[in-house]
Amino acid sequence: MDGIKTLADLKKKQEEVMSRMSLRDRAENPESLVQVKVAMATCGIASGAKEVMEYFIEELYKRKIDAVVTQTGCMGYCFAEPTVEISLPGREAIVFGYVDTRKADEIIERYIKEGELVDGIIPQNYNTI
Amino acid sequence: MIDLAMHMMDIVQNSLRAGAEKVEIDLIENSRGHTLLFRVKDNGSGMDGETVKRLADPFFTTRTTRKVGLGVPFLKMTCEQTGGRFTAFSEEGKGSVVEAVYRTDHPDCLPLGDTAGYLALLLRANPEIRFRFTCRIDDAEFILDSGELKEQGIDLQHPQMLGAVREYIRENIKEIYRKQPSHGFLCM
């Protein structure tokens, strides 16, 4: 489709997407999904959280991982922005710091898919500024 | 903050934290008066007079995770350095309005930035909130209402729609500038 400019274009795109989506069951229980929260406060925005969030939304879909990607406020780790909190089903949430799109790729491939811990985890007992 | 879109994302986070259900975002340029008004209005919890007074104080925040709050002070700084002004009104229980006026004939005036990208993310990440975005230069305007899009059957939460919504907003903002080629200050 060339260019999306009118509401009709947007609806057409929606129909395309819907037809492809019907194959995939939407999990009803969010607890069973991977949850990705991108910190999107002043510090996160200034460090590039937008690109990281867009990357998670688009890549998790492409790699067929059922996940909820959302934004959250500052968790106090301003020095390590962009930060991302990831909760895998049945596991404690983990916060990763200094996440760029390369780090995000590593997190998806190694932590979300395989459950391996990767560099860049901010321990819970870190003091906030 | 290097562009207005970043300020937009940042200030809207305050509305979200105040429990708003409706958020209105306006970018209104007056090319003859050389002003650009950026406004965020919400129906969140609002603030008392004392809080409004301290809003632009960088050492004031309602958070407990840190001791500084720079979103509003930065916005005030970037508009005032162009010769513009910052204003905030609020009423407890009713909501808040934050306004920043920029002088577009001042070299320090911020560029628009990726408004479409940030807006698409806001719509995607906050399905329960009704956003109304208005971008206007003189008489040309584009209005996006997330409630209306939903009524039209657009699923703003679908990952594949993120890019489409972004493109939709971007094309429409570009169109406004095309209509006002000799005046439009904001550039993409």
Describe this structure in words.
- The complex is a heterodimer of chains A (129) and B (188).
- With 129 residues, chain A is an alpha+beta fold.
- Chain A has a domain of 85 residues: 3-Layer(aba) Sandwich (Glutaredoxin), CATH 3.40.30.10.
- Helices cover 36% and strands 15% of the residues of chain A.
- Chain A contains four helices and four strands.
- Chain A has a four-stranded mixed beta sheet, covered by helices on one side.
- In chain A, helix 3 crosses helix 4.
- Chain A is globular and about 50 Å long.
- About 5% of the residues of chain A have low confidence.
- Chain B is of the alpha+beta class and 188 residues long.
- Chain B has a single domain, classed as Heat Shock Protein 90.
- Chain B has six helices and six strands; from the N terminus they run H-E-E-H-H-E-E-H-E-E-H-H.
- A six-stranded mixed beta sheet of chain B has the order 3-4-2-1-5-6.
- In chain B, strand 1 and strand 2 form a beta hairpin.
- Chain B starts with a helix and ends in a 9-residue tail after the last helix.
- Chains A and B meet through helix 1, helix 2, helix 3 and strand 2 of A and helix 1, helix 4 and helix 6 of B.
Taken from the alpha-carbon principal axes, the silhouette of chain B is globular
Distance between the terminal alpha carbons of chain A, to the nearest Å?
48 Å
Estimate the helix proportion of chain A, in percent.
25-40%
Broad shape of chain A: globular
pLDDT below 50 for ≥5 consecutive residues: which ranges of chain A? Answer: 22-27
**The biggest beta sheet of chain B, please?**
6 strands, mixed
pLDDT < 50 stretches of chain B: none
Structural class of chain A: alpha+beta
Class by SSE composition of chain B: alpha+beta
Major beta sheet, strand line-up of chain B = 3-4-2-1-5-6
How many helical stretches of chain A? 4
CATH topology of chain B: Heat Shock Protein 90
CA-based gyration radius of chain A: 16 Å
| DSSP summary, beta strand count of chain A | 4
What is the CATH topology descriptor of the domain at 28-112 in chain A?
Glutaredoxin
Named CATH architecture of the domain at 28-112 in chain A: 3-Layer(aba) Sandwich
Superfamily at the CATH H level of chain B?
A: Histidine kinase-like ATPase, C-terminal domain
